[in-house]
Amino acid sequence: MPDPEPDPEPTGLAHRLRTDRKWRRGAIAAILLALVAGVAVTVVAARSSGPGGISDGPLIAAPGTADPVPAVRAVQKIPDDCGVSKGTAARLAPGSDPDPEKGGVFRQGGPGSCMWYSLDDGKAKCDFCAGDFRNERVLNVDIALAGSGLQSPAGEAMRLMDEPPGAAPGSARPEIVEGLGEEATARYSAETETEGAIVRFRVGTAVATIRYHGWDAVRDERRAISEKTALDGAFAAAAETAKSMGTAARPVLSRVKHPVTPPLRHVPKPCDTVPAATVDRVARGAYRQRGNTTLFPVLGRPGTSSDACTWKARTSRYAYSDEGSSRTLTVAVTVEDDRLPGLGAFTTTRRYLGVYENLRADKTPGSDRFTGFKPLAGPGDRAFAVTRVASGASDGDMGYVVFQKRNALVEVSYSGAEEETPLSGSRLVDSAYTVAVAVERSLRS
Questions:
Q1: Radius of gyration for the alpha carbons in the chain, expressed in angstroms and rounded
Q2: DSSP state of 423
Q3: What's the pLDDT tens digit per position in 381-423?
Q4: Strand pairing partners for 160?
Q5: What are 211's strand-pairing partners?
Q6: What DSSP element (H or E) covers 282?
Q7: What is the C-alpha to C-alpha distance for residues 393 and 401, in angstroms, rounded to an integer?
Q8: What is the 3-state secondary structure (H, E, C) of 198-261?
Q9: Of the four listed, 224, 318, 413, 418, which is most buried by Cβ atoms within 10 Å?
Q10: How far apart are CA 177 and CA 157, in angstroms?
Q11: Whose CA is closest to 172, among 158, 191, 159?
Q12: What is the largest distance, in Å, between two alpha-carbon atoms of the chain?
């Protein structure tokens, strides 16, 4: 049987319709392929231009600003006799030598360290007296000029003010004093080692400490002078010392620290301050653990609480391996209580500025070195960024963003590595800043 004739090629309208359908199907497939390829290229480009690894971003660049903190007044001269007049010294310590800086019987001292001593209203005339006496009065004035050692002079002076003046364990906390220097405190104690009144004030880079104490014999018993007598005497001497140093000299105890800044109503735990989505931007797949603050150590200060959380992420399954990528994020939050209105925010500001002054002057205690200090335009009430320089070839730099919000200090640090190469540069600070912005949102006023 002969082979059938082949179908003739389609012509006319049917042919054109079939051809158009084939062309459209091909065109659509080509377009879809191009779109898929374009998306793939875009994703690769985004990853290659961003941080990559286990911190894909996007990051917020830390915005620098002009330095908003004025220079602290540098005090270089100590007034004669610590600024205390002969009349005041004679009234507070009868019979004491009018020139305490010469040293000698019943007195001791030197420039910036003065002592007036009175026993039995000045009638006892001996170096080491024993026997029955009616009273004793001692006035000490010490003026410390902050130097230029491991800390900046301003930072050192603020640290001195941050320490309780001669407080014994369990004793009353210092009270607020207004109208004396740039900041001042006072306390009274009947404890044997710290009895009497201690007043401390700061003017610029100088800190003056005035102590007035003594006892009176009452029915064969020595009783410490009263709180009023002790504070009145210390305030009288402190006012003259402050006046001689050119600062406010009308001290008065206050139940309020002006200006009054209310404390934060809600401060979450550090581990709860960073949303998971933000953690994924800088340390995807991290696990959490307790952390530590670096720049603001808290050594049993009454009224101060501190906590920290660390997120660690790594792509290597081996804990101590340089393979793959690693990231470490730490958020530390320090909170000062507000036992008196305004005191929490004021104390927090002093601690913030003390560290700020040290880093600005490139002087910090310890062996750590820092670089790239810059004030930031937020978050919080005031903020700065800095980078801790690696201490060894195998270590990496660490970027810090620190901010204060009312009575809370927040320290965010960030570091990482790709294989054996530690991260460095602005990327560290930008990562810390990205997290700091999220932390600030969690602090509710």
A1: 34
A2: -
A3: 999 999 999 887 667 899 999 999 999 999 999 999 988 889 9
A4: none
A5: 140, 198
A6: helix 276-283
A7: 24
A8: EEEEEECCEEEEEEEEEEEECCCCEEECCHHHHHHHHHHHHHHHHHHCCCCEEEEEECCCCCCC
A9: 413
A10: 17
A11: 191
A12: 154
Mean pLDDT across 357-379: 93
Nearest CA among 325, 320, 294, 287 for reference residue 308: 294
> How confident is the model at residue 137, as a pLDDT?
92
pLDDT, position 375? 98
Q: What are phi and psi of 154, to 5 degrees?
A: -65, -45
Tokens of 195: 């009895």
Q: What is the mean pLDDT of residues 336-355?
A: 95
Distance of CA 365 to the CA centre of its chain: 14
Query: Residue 279 half-sphere exposure, CB side, CA atoms within 13 Å?
Result: 21
Retrieve residue 276's tokens.
Answer: 């998971």
Is the distance from CB of 144 to CB of 213 less than 8 angstroms? no
| Of the candidates 25, 241, 303, the residue with the CA atom closest to the CA atom of residue 116 | 241
The set of residues, in sequence order, having a beta carbon less than 8 Å from that of 66 and lying 6+ positions away, is 375
Q: Please tell me the distance from the alpha carbon of residue 154 to that of residue 236, in angstroms, as a whole number.
A: 26
In the block, tokens 């009947």 appear at: 190
How big is the chain, counted in residues? Answer: 445
Residue type, 444: R
**Span 214-223, mean pLDDT?**
89
